[in-house]
UniProtKB/TrEMBL annotation, chain A:
Pfam families: BPD_transp_1. Keywords: Cell membrane, Membrane, Transmembrane, Transmembrane helix, Transport. Belongs to the binding-protein-dependent transport system permease family. It is a multi-pass membrane protein. This is Carbohydrate ABC transporter membrane protein 1 (CUT1 family). The chain crosses the membrane at residues 12-30, 71-96, 108-130, 156-180, 201-223, 262-284. It is found in: Cell membrane.
Automatic annotation (TrEMBL), chain B:
Pfam families: BPD_transp_1. It is a multi-pass membrane protein. The keyword Transmembrane applies. This is Carbohydrate ABC transporter membrane protein 2 (CUT1 family). The keyword Lipoprotein does not apply. Belongs to the binding-protein-dependent transport system permease family. The chain crosses the membrane at residues 9-29, 64-90, 102-123, 143-162, 183-205, 242-263. Keywords: Cell membrane, Membrane, Transmembrane, Transmembrane helix, Transport. It is found in: Cell membrane. CDD domains: TM_PBP2. Residues 65-263 form the ABC transmembrane type-1 domain.
Length: 294, 277
């Protein structure tokens, strides 16, 4: 087939995908930026007031707002706790999994698979019920009936973080386990023959070899935990009392759809996208270093 | 001795990890008075289907279950067709903008779709003016967005499977007089079926679990809600019907659990491959 013929057939095959992606991803991204530059509230939506171009007004408004900085700080801190927790639990269990017999490991993996595949909404409600003030099993075991985990800001954040770690550590565990298993046995035997202790082998041989994989799961976790929406929304009932459990995602949603400040909500969305794209650049560099080719 | 300790510890951890799911299923089968008891116990002597009956009749979970199934299945079917064609184009053909398209596919996967709720809300609103079935309050709007969100990854993942089919096979099929169309659907399509299964499970789970877009798009049409939204509606701060909620959660989780089990091996090798390169 001629080069031109190839191009034409390829284009025909690509058309449906390109149409969908252009209309439902590219165009909305453009619209997101556009809306963030306007004063776009309830009156403008219903046509009762003319659209006013604000330029960077929404962003100025946002950056001058104390609540935005609080929410941004909370988002970063919350994501950090979730990422560190996920990595520690996942790595610890991946290492333990290499030392036990197959049926024990399969039991652990099966339980992890269950946690992994539970839909976020279902998982959040189950945890809410387990930690319910009056009927929850956890309070019964701890003997603190009537204690509300979701009332206080910090216990509420802690509970959500625990739920997020519960459903995201399996990915880290399984990936790291696969990584450890892929290290050739001879390398470890050689280290043992040279008289290295188990700890020394883990620290100086296994860890450096796993570095690329650890980097990838870390960045992947950052990307996921930075944009947690469902768990916060469901477990703290839309961002907590007086919005004290808000993270950026929920904040953007509340500004746009609860307060009808669509322009401001879009601006928060742009800020979030930019932050994530920066993280993504690191991700792509990490992927390239670990040998992923296009 | 030491191994016994480690194994015991790992089994305890497995129990803790599985406990929330156990508690969900257990509570779904508990009678009402045991659920709202001040002293909950981790067993029941009087299992009952009352909670399921309540969830399906009072809360109308059957309807929402069906809605979720319809959305997820249409997304899967369309995403298989579209991503298969696109992946074939990107692996079997050489054309100028190919690399650019591949990089765009990768970058687009990183865009936080949650940030797009505002523009997509207005897009669906104007789409609804001309084609109501794809506008706000209709399941079509959910199909459209989930199709768009699942395509980049589906195409990306299928590329590997299409590339694995030897080019000689296509040459042989052409020599045997098969048209391009026949080769595509009768030779290539069955051969990449395993890859299609893995990607479609991911698309299914994505659409099935979605809470944000269902919440944003389905505003007033209660009959068009999907499971995640319906579940949230029944969680009220004052008097929760925990039995029905747990029964609903069980109904929602089990399909995903089954799909996940079916493809976990392929999924994990795929993930490990993506990580190791």
């Amino acid at each position: 087939m001629t080069a031109r013929g190839q191009g034409r057939t390829a284009f025909a095959y690509l058309t449906p995908a390109l149409l969908v992606l252009a209309g439902l991803l590219a165009y909305p991204i453009y619209q997101l930026v556009l809306i963030s530059l306007y004063d776009y509230g309830q009156e403008q939506v219903s046509g009762g007031a003319p659209l006013t171009f604000l330029g960077l007004g929404n962003y100025q408004n946002l950056l001058g707002n104390q609540q935005f900085w609080t929410v941004l700080g909370q988002t970063v801190a919350f994501a950090a706790v979730c990422v560190v927790g996920t990595l520690i639990v996942g790595a610890f269990l991946a290492i333990l999994a290499t030392t036990v017999r197959t049926w024990v490991r399969m039991t652990l993996f099966l339980a992890a698979l269950g946690a992994w595949s539970t839909p976020a909404v279902a998982g959040s409600t189950i945890w809410l019920f387990l930690f319910d003030a009056n009927f929850g099993f956890v309070n019964e075991v701890l003997g603190i009936q009537g204690f509300s985990w979701t009332f206080d800001k910090w216990t509420a954040f802690g509970l959500v973080a625990a739920q997020v770690i519960w459903c995201s550590f399996p990915f880290v565990m399984v990936t790291l386990y696969a990584g450890i298993k892929a290290i050739p046995g001879e390398v470890l035997e050689a280290a043992a023959l040279d008289g290295a202790s188990a700890f020394r082998t883990a620290w100086s041989v296994t860890l450096p070899l796993l570095r690329p994989i650890i980097l990838v799961v870390t960045i992947q976790s950052i990307i996921w935990d930075f944009k947690v929406f469902t768990q916060i929304y469901v477990m703290t009932n839309g961002g907590g009392i007086a919005g004290r459990n808000l993270v950026l995602n929920v904040y953007a949603y509340q500004q746009a759809f609860a307060a009808s400040e669509y322009g401001l909500g879009a601006a928060i969305g742009v800020v979030m996208t930019v932050l994530l794209l920066v993280i993504t650049l690191f991700y792509l560099r990490a992927l390239r270093r670990s040998g992923e080719a296009l | 001795m030491k191994r016994w300790l480690t194994e015991g510890f790992v089994l305890v951890i497995a129990g803790v990890v599985a406990f929330p799911l156990f508690w969900m299923v257990l509570s779904a089968f508990k009678p009402e008075d045991e659920i709202i008891s001040a002293d909950p116990v981790p067993w029941t002597t009087r299992p009952t289907l009352d909670s399921f009956t309540r969830a399906l009749t009072v809360a109308n979970f059957g309807r929402y279950f069906l809605n979720s199934v319809v959305v997820a299945l249409i997304v899967v079917a369309l995403s298989i067709l579209i991503s298969f064609l696109a992946a074939t184009a990107l692996t079997r053909f050489r054309f100028r903008s190919r690399t650019t398209l591949l990089i765009m596919l990768l970058v687009v996967q990183m865009v936080p779709v949650e940030a797009l709720t505002v523009p997509l809300f207005f897009l669906m609103r104007s789409v609804g003016d001309s084609v109501p079935a794809f506008g706000l309050n209709h399941l079509g709007s959910l199909v459209l967005v989930h199709l768009a969100f699942s395509l980049p990854f589906a195409i990306w993942m299928l590329r590997g499977f299409v590339a694995a089919v030897p080019v000689e096979l296509e040459e042989a099929a052409t020599l045997d007089g098969a048209s391009r169309f026949r080769f595509l659907w009768q030779v290539l399509f069955p051969l990449v079926a395993p890859g299609l299964v893995a990607t479609s499970v991911l698309s299914f789970i994505h659409a099935w679990n979605d809470f944000l877009f269902a919440k944003t798009f389905i505003i007033s049409a209660v009959e068009n809600q999907t499971l995640p939204l319906a579940l949230q509606v029944f969680v009220k701060p004052d008097q929760n019907d925990w039995g029905a909620i747990m029964a609903g959660s069980t109904l929602m989780t089990i399909p995903v659990l089954i799909f996940f089990m079916l493809v976990q091996r392929r999924l994990m090798s795929g993930l490990a491959g993506a990580v190791k390169g």
